[in-house]
UniProtKB/TrEMBL annotation:
The lineage of its organism: Bacteria, Bacillati, Actinomycetota, Actinomycetes, Micrococcales. GO terms for biological process: tRNA 5'-leader removal. RNaseP catalyzes the removal of the 5'-leader sequence from pre-tRNA to produce the mature 5'-terminus. It can also cleave other RNA substrates such as 4.5S RNA. The protein component plays an auxiliary but essential role in vivo by binding to the 5'-leader sequence and broadening the substrate specificity of the ribozyme. This is Ribonuclease P protein component. It comes from Microbacterium ulmi. Consists of a catalytic RNA component (M1 or rnpB) and a protein subunit. It is an enzyme of class 3 (hydrolase). The keyword Ribosomal protein does not apply. One of its GO terms (molecular function) is tRNA binding. It catalyses: Endonucleolytic cleavage of RNA, removing 5'-extranucleotides from tRNA precursor. It holds the Pfam family Ribonuclease_P. PROSITE patterns: RIBONUCLEASE_P. Belongs to the RnpA family. GO terms for cellular component: ribonuclease P complex. Keywords: Endonuclease, Hydrolase, Nuclease, RNA-binding, tRNA processing.
């Protein structure tokens, strides 16, 4: 999955990305991207609220999003901070739809 250097861990980091980031909305997710030229690893964060479903469903959606980001990491500009917010429809979305949506937003905002 995602190694520690590739994760956003603090609430202030999430808040900064959501407030300052460029937004890309889809049917199942909203992606926020802050691109920088710092020589560091790309970092990802995930927001999956209780509106998505039970704890089991939220964790399933989060694991799917993590796998998609790990898959797409080589195409993302180094130094980018990315937060993906799952919408309630993400719980019932097929994996292929989530993959297409995340890849589209990452290529549009973080490539």
């Amino acid at each position: 999955m995602l190694a520690r250097p590739n994760r956003l861990t603090r609430g202030a980091e999430y808040k900064a990305v959501v407030r300052r980031g460029r937004r890309c909305a889809g049917a199942h997710t909203v992606t926020y991207v802050v691109a920088s030229d710092e020589p560091r690893a790309t970092r990802f964060g995930f927001i999956v609220s209780k509106q998505v479903g039970s704890a089991v469903m939220r964790n399933t959606v989060r694991r799917r999003l993590k796998a998609l980001c790990a898959e797409a990491m080589p195409t993302v500009r180094p130094g980018s901070d990315i937060v993906i917010r799952a919408l309630p429809t993400a719980a019932s979305a097929p994996y292929a739809d989530l993959r297409d949506e995340v890849a589209r937003c990452l290529s549009r905002r973080a490539a």
